[in-house]
UniProtKB/TrEMBL annotation:
<feature type="transmembrane region" description="Helical">
    <location>
        <begin position="67"/>
        <end position="89"/>
    </location>
</feature>
<protein>
    <submittedName>
        <fullName>DUF1624 domain-containing protein</fullName>
    </submittedName>
</protein>
<feature type="domain" description="Heparan-alpha-glucosaminide N-acetyltransferase catalytic">
    <location>
        <begin position="33"/>
        <end position="221"/>
    </location>
</feature>
<keyword id="KW-0812">Transmembrane</keyword>
<feature type="transmembrane region" description="Helical">
    <location>
        <begin position="308"/>
        <end position="328"/>
    </location>
</feature>
<dbReference type="InterPro" id="IPR052529">
    <property type="entry name" value="Bact_Transport_Assoc"/>
</dbReference>
<keyword id="KW-0472">Membrane</keyword>
<feature type="transmembrane region" description="Helical">
    <location>
        <begin position="195"/>
        <end position="215"/>
    </location>
</feature>
<feature type="transmembrane region" description="Helical">
    <location>
        <begin position="267"/>
        <end position="288"/>
    </location>
</feature>
<dbReference type="Pfam" id="PF04235">
    <property type="entry name" value="DUF418"/>
</dbReference>
<dbReference type="InterPro" id="IPR007349">
    <property type="entry name" value="DUF418"/>
</dbReference>
<dbReference type="InterPro" id="IPR012429">
    <property type="entry name" value="HGSNAT_cat"/>
</dbReference>
<dbReference type="Pfam" id="PF07786">
    <property type="entry name" value="HGSNAT_cat"/>
</dbReference>
<feature type="transmembrane region" description="Helical">
    <location>
        <begin position="132"/>
        <end position="148"/>
    </location>
</feature>
<feature type="transmembrane region" description="Helical">
    <location>
        <begin position="340"/>
        <end position="359"/>
    </location>
</feature>
<feature type="transmembrane region" description="Helical">
    <location>
        <begin position="109"/>
        <end position="126"/>
    </location>
</feature>
<feature type="transmembrane region" description="Helical">
    <location>
        <begin position="222"/>
        <end position="239"/>
    </location>
</feature>
C-alpha cells in the first residue's frame, strides 16, 4: 500500500501535463485538421528562411548541385497560395458561406488583414534586410474577398485571368524609376511591393480554389499534384535559359515579362512557380492523408501550425542576433555566420514544444481572438469543425 501511495504521488503531477500533450497531439493529428496544409506551411516557413540566410546561386534544373536555390521565389509563392487555402478552410471549405454568414466572414478577414499589416509594419521597423511579406498578405486577403463565395472552377479561372492581365502590368510598373525615389521606396515597403499584390492575388485565388475543391478527397489531392506539375513543367520549360544570379533592371519589356526568374513577376514565373506551389501542396496532402507515422512529419507540421509566430520570431531573432554579434543587420555579414541551421533548429524545437505544451501559436491565438469581434465565422454546410486559421506569413 505504501508503494502504491508513493507511485500515485510521483505520477500525479505529470498527469495534467500528459493530458495536455495528448489533447494537443489530437488537435494537430485528428480528422478536424488538414495536416497536409500544416506540412506545406512548415516547408514554406523554412524555405523562406533558407532563401534569406543561405548563399545560393542560380538554379539549373539539369545540375543537381544548384537545386538548393529552388527556395528562391518559390517559398514566398507557396506562402501566398497557402494563404488562399487557409482562407478557404476558415470559411467553410467546399461549402462557402452565404448571406449573413458571408458578411461576417468577410468582416473577420478584414480585421485579420489589418492586424497582419500592423505586425508587418512593426517588423519593417526592425530594419532587417529582408522583404517582409506580411503587408502583401494583408492586401491580397482583402482583394480576394469579392470572390470568397465562388466555386472552385471560377476561382481557378479568375487566377488564370489575373496572371495574364496583371503580369505585364506589374513588369511595366517595376520598370518605373519612381520606385527608386524615397516616396516610391517607402510606399513599396508598406504595401509589400516586393511581392506585388496585383499579380500575387492570383496565387491566393488558386489556393482558395483548392480549398473549395475539397482537399479531403484523394481525387482532389491527386488532381492538385497533376495540375501543379503540368503548370510547373510548362512555365519552366518555356523560360529561356538558366536563372540569372543577379536581377537585371535593364532588360527589354518582352524579355522581362517572358521569364520564370524568381521575383521577376514574369508570366512564366507565375505559371511555373504557381504550379510548383500547387504540386507541393498536393504532395503534402497525399503524404499526410495516408496517416502512416505522423510523428515523422510532426516537427514540420508544428511549425506550419503556427506560421505567423514562426515567421515573426525568425525576423526578430535575426534582428537581435545580428545586432548583438555584428552591430547591424547587414545581410551578407550575417549570412557569413551560417545562421540558417541554428535558426531552423530553434524554430522547429520551439514550435514543437509550444504546440504540445500550450497549443495554438501565441500570435495566431491573439489575432483569432481580436478578429472574433467581427462575429462568429459563418458557414453554410456544417464545416465549422474543419476551419483552420489564415495567419500564415
Amino acid at each position: 500500500m505504501a508503494r502504491d501511495r508513493r507511485r500515485s504521488m510521483t505520477s500525479a503531477p505529470t498527469t495534467p501535463l500528459r493530458r495536455r500533450i495528448e489533447r494537443n497531439w489530437r488537435r494537430l493529428n485528428g480528422p478536424a485538421r488538414v495536416a497536409g496544409v500544416d506540412l506545406a506551411r512548415g516547408l514554406a516557413v523554412l524555405g523562406m528562411l533558407a532563401a534569406h540566410l543561405l548563399w545560393l546561386g542560380s538554379l539549373s534544373w539539369t545540375e543537381p548541385s544548384t537545386w538548393g536555390a529552388i527556395v528562391n521565389g518559390r517559398s514566398s509563392i507557396l506562402f501566398a497560395t497557402l494563404a488562399g487555402v487557409s482562407l478557404g478552410l476558415s470559411t467553410g471549405g467546399p461549402r462557402p458561406p452565404s448571406g449573413a454568414g458571408l458578411g461576417r466572414a468577410r468582416l473577420r478577414v478584414v480585421i485579420r488583414a489589418l492586424l497582419i499589416w500592423l505586425i508587418g509594419v512593426l517588423l519593417i521597423s526592425l530594419d532587417v534586410p529582408a522583404a517582409i511579406i506580411l503587408p502583401t498578405y494583408a492586401v491580397i486577403f482583402v482583394l480576394a474577398l469579392p470572390l470568397l463565395a465562388q466555386r472552385a472552377s471560377r476561382l481557378f479561372l479568375a487566377a488564370a485571368i489575373v496572371v495574364l492581365v496583371a503580369s505585364p502590368v506589374v513588369v511595366w510598373a517595376n520598370a518605373s524609376p519612381w520606385w527608386e525615389s524615397y516616396e516610391g521606396w517607402l510606399t513599396g515597403l508598406y504595401i509589400g511591393w516586393n511581392y506585388p499584390f496585383p499579380l500575387w492575388v492570383a496565387f491566393t485565388l488558386a489556393g482558395l480554389g483548392l480549398a473549395r475543391a475539397g482537399m479531403w478527397s484523394r481525387r482532389a489531392q491527386w488532381a492538385a499534384l497533376g495540375l501543379g506539375m503540368l503548370l510547373a513543367v510548362a512555365g519552366y520549360s518555356l523560360s529561356p535559359g538558366a536563372e540569372p544570379s543577379e536581377e537585371s533592371a535593364d532588360r527589354p519589356f518582352l524579355e522581362a515579362w517572358w521569364t520564370a526568374d524568381p521575383h521577376s513577376s514574369g508570366v512564366l514565373e507565375a505559371i511555373g512557380s504557381g504550379g510548383f506551389a500547387i504540386a507541393v501542396i498536393g504532395v503534402c496532402l497525399l503524404l499526410c492523408s495516408a496517416g502512416r507515422l505522423p510523428w515523422l512529419t510532426f516537427p514540420l507540421r508544428a511549425v506550419g501550425s503556427m506560421p505567423l509566430t514562426a515567421y515573426v520570431l525568425q525576423i526578430v531573432g535575426w534582428a537581435l542576433a545580428s545586432t548583438i554579434l555584428l552591430g547591424s543587420a547587414h545581410e551578407h555579414a550575417f549570412r557569413d555566420l551560417d545562421p540558417f541551421l541554428p535558426m531552423t533548429l530553434a524554430t522547429i524545437v520551439l514550435s514543437v514544444v509550444w504546440s504540445l505544451l500550450v497549443g495554438q501559436g501565441p500570435l495566431e491565438a491573439l489575432i483569432g481572438r481580436l478578429s472574433s469581434f467581427g462575429g462568429p465565422p459563418g458557414s453554410s454546410g456544417g464545416n465549422a469543425q474543419r476551419r483552420q486559421h489564415i495567419l500564415e506569413p
